[in-house]
Amino acid sequence: MSNAGNTVKDIDPQEFVIALAKYLKRSGKIRVPKYAEYAKTGHYKTMPPNDPDWFFIRTAALARRVYMRGGVGVGWLSRAIGTAASAHRTPRHRVKAAHGNIRHALQALETLGMVQKDKEGGRSITSAGRRDLDRIAVRLAKSRKTRRALTMTAPKK
After folding, report:
1. Closest to 110 measured CA to CA, from 100, 99, 125, 97
2. pTM above threshold 0.85
3. In angstroms, how far is CA 97 from the centroid of its own chain?
4. What CA–CA distance (Å, rounded) separates 31 from 105?
């Protein structure tokens, strides 16, 4: 059976981001900023993330966003990742995520060669980055097929 057609767009986003974050952490090529232990992901947050690997997860999510829609900058990504927040009784308003975290994550992806600065502005995925992300997507699709096959052949109790 051919693996043609298995791209990042065919895989569950959450599953893909977790797998890519594990890949980025295992590679050891991404340097986590010194401030990552104390940094919040937005001004509307009270505390920093509880997960010690949050920077890898954020970097993986940004890599997927750049893959899906090239030519995006820090501002667009900040709006895309931001959320609705409110100050007690006031209505909820759309707020942006922290720019510094996004900028450092994109710079880390640039050093890996997955992302490059686009001529028209923003960042776009490189051919090497597309290849790496598609390779992870193919691996996830294969593991999903084997899991599905095992559950179908398992005896029912």
Report:
1. 125
2. no
3. 14
4. 9
Report the length, in residues, of the chain.
Answer: 157
Per-residue pLDDT of 5-43, as tens digits, reads 688 888 899 999 999 999 999 998 888 888 878 888 777
Q: Residues 123, 72: contact at Cβ < 8 Å? A: yes
Reported as a single tens digit per residue, the pLDDT across 80-133 is 988 887 777 778 888 888 888 999 999 999 999 999 999 988 999 999 999 999
Residue pLDDT, tens place only, 23-33:
999 998 888 88
Q: Torsions phi, psi of 107, nearest 5? A: -65, -35
Full DSSP string of 38-80: T--SSTT-SS--S-TTHHHHHHHHHHHHHHHS-SB-HHHHHHH
